[in-house]
Design a protein that fits this description.
By secondary structure, the protein is α/β, with parallel strands linked by helices. It folds into 2 domains: about 160 residues, Aspartate Aminotransferase, domain 1 (Alpha-Beta Complex); about 250 residues, Type I PLP-dependent aspartate aminotransferase-like (Major domain) (Aspartate Aminotransferase, domain 2, 3-Layer(aba) Sandwich), CATH 3.40.640. Helix content is about 40%, strand content about 15%. It has a 7-stranded mixed sheet with strand order 4-10-9-8-7-5-6, with helices on both faces. The relative contact order is 0.17. It binds (4S)-4,5-diaminopentanoic acid. (4S)-4,5-diaminopentanoic acid (HOZ) binds next to loops.
Length: about 425
């Protein structure tokens, strides 16, 4: 197991006395892989440096927002210039219009968009909007999909809950979770059955169009189109949670990639450029149900925060001006092939799931298509791989059940270094 340097260790000891578990978000604590987290000093390009001066090639990239890499100069400059004029007003700014118009331009389902501060808030508000618009209460979600930590959406969720095998968190009254019907991902029959029973009470389906919080799982062919069809047949709404996939798998997100347009879209991560911003959007008829036009309430002191808008705008405009998706795909494919070859040479069975620049290496020999098959992955082997890679200067997600990300800052040389590291580490995994 990798032991971080002395400063990281000291900061960790202090953090544990001040902050529950020493972290402000559970998966950062390394509990899924064992050991102690690194404390970061700085990030540049595709690398981070810890407080002890060791450099790592980073494939977490702040869990997805940093598609352009750490401290991308245009983003940093936009933040700097905006801060100098004030950091928050609680009054509208032009930056909100500019980011909103870029989102409307790129995301097929969105005519109007409301900015908030986190993906959790955006998903929670999208659900409220779906309920307000349809006048129905029930929500369908998929086993292992994660939509933030609002009460009703924590049922059978991925991300930290998958990492810690928490089936249902304490503190959520049973009646809150009762409004959420959980069905297996990629399973049209199960969705059909739930609609046959509750169809006229279902406000909407919320889905990660590419699952990213149990590791990456692509939608089965026709699955998303089926969800569009069944929601339309029953007068309920289809909500795509594109917090991870928005601007990640293309300018139009997963809906652009697969050609399926949902009713409501939830965005986060990349649209904040590494600052706290998220959003939800839909056609005008739905969005105008929100206060102050309509009667569905949602608000926030820091919603549309100018600094976050500036960072998001600089990121999104960079992507629009020179879409990097073909390059990202090529870089991620290089990594995918290299890791798979390294595993094969070492005789370690793996499955590599990848869509564009998001991917997960599962330590299993059977296909991973839903949460139960993801759970078959050998978590002990993943942990050993994770620690071996840290030793070699490569930072992977500290849990098997997360997506890894390639950014435009990952050069072929960085990826080749990563593959060389994986070759060394994989040979030691046979005995694990
Ligand atoms: N929910 C994030 C992973 N899917 C974790 C965020 C964090 O710990 O920073």
């Amino acid at each position: 197991m990798y032991t971080p340097g002395a400063r990281s260790q000291a900061l960790w000891r202090t953090a544990c006395t001040l902050i529950p578990g020493g972290v402000n978000s559970p998966v950062r604590a390394f509990k899924g892989v064992g050991g102690q987290p690194l404390f970061v000093e700085r990030g540049y390009g595709c690398c981070v440096q810890d407080v002890d001066g060791k450099e790592y090639i980073d494939y977490v990239m702040s869990w997805g927002p940093l598609i352009l890499g750490h401290a991308y100069p245009r983003v940093v400059e936009a933040i700097r210039q905006t801060c100098e004029k004030g950091t928050s007003f609680g009054m509208p700014t032009e930056l909100e219009n500019r980011l909103a118009s870029r989102i409307v331009q790129c995301v097929p389902s969105i005519q109007k968009v409301r900015m908030v501060s986190s993906g959790t808030e955006a998903a929670m508000s999208a659900i409220r909007l779906a309920r307000g618009f349809t006048g129905r209460d029930l929500i369908v979600k998929f086993d292992g999909c994660y939509h933030g930590h609002s009460d009703g959406l924590l049922a059978a969720a991925g991300s930290g809950l998958a990492t810690f095998a928490i089936p249902d968190t304490k503190g959520v009254p049973a009646k809150h979770a009762e409004g959420t019907l959980v069905v297996p991902y990629n399973n049209c029959d199960a969705v059909e059955a739930v609609f046959a029973k509750h169809g006229d009470k279902i406000a909407g389906i919320i889905v990660e169009p590419i699952a990213g919080n149990v590791g990456v799982i692509a939608p089965a062919s026709g699955f998303l189109a089926f969800l569009g069809d069944i929601t339309q047949r029953h007068g309920s709404l289809l909500i795509f949670d594109e917090v991870i996939t928005g601007f990640r798998v293309g300018l139009g997100g997963a809906q652009g990639l697969y050609g399926v347009t949902p009713d409501i879209t939830v965005l986060g991560k990349i649209i904040g450029g590494g600052m706290p911003a998220a959003a939800y959007g839909a056609r005008a008829e739905i969005m105008d149900c929100l206060a102050p036009v309509g009667a569905v309430y949602q608000a926030g002191t820091l919603s549309g925060n100018p600094v976050a808008m500036a960072a998001g705008l600089a990121t999104v405009e960079t992507l629009i001006e020179d879409p990097p998706y073909a390059r990202l795909d090529a870089s991620a494919a290089l990594l995918e092939t290299g890791l798979r070859d390294a595993a094969r040479e070492a005789g370690i069975p793996v499955r590599q799931n990848r869509v564009g620049s998001m991917q997960t290496l599962f330590f299993t020999d059977s296909p991973v298509t839903d949460y139960p098959t993801a759970k078959k992955s050998d978590a002990r082997r993943y942990a050993a791989f994770f620690h071996g890679m840290l030793e070699q200067g490569v930072y992977l997600a500290p849990s098997q059940f997360e997506a890894g990300f390639v950014s435009t800052a990952h050069s072929d040389a960085h990826i080749q270094r990563t593959i060389a590291a994986a070759r060394k580490v994989m040979t030691g995994l046979k005995s694990v």
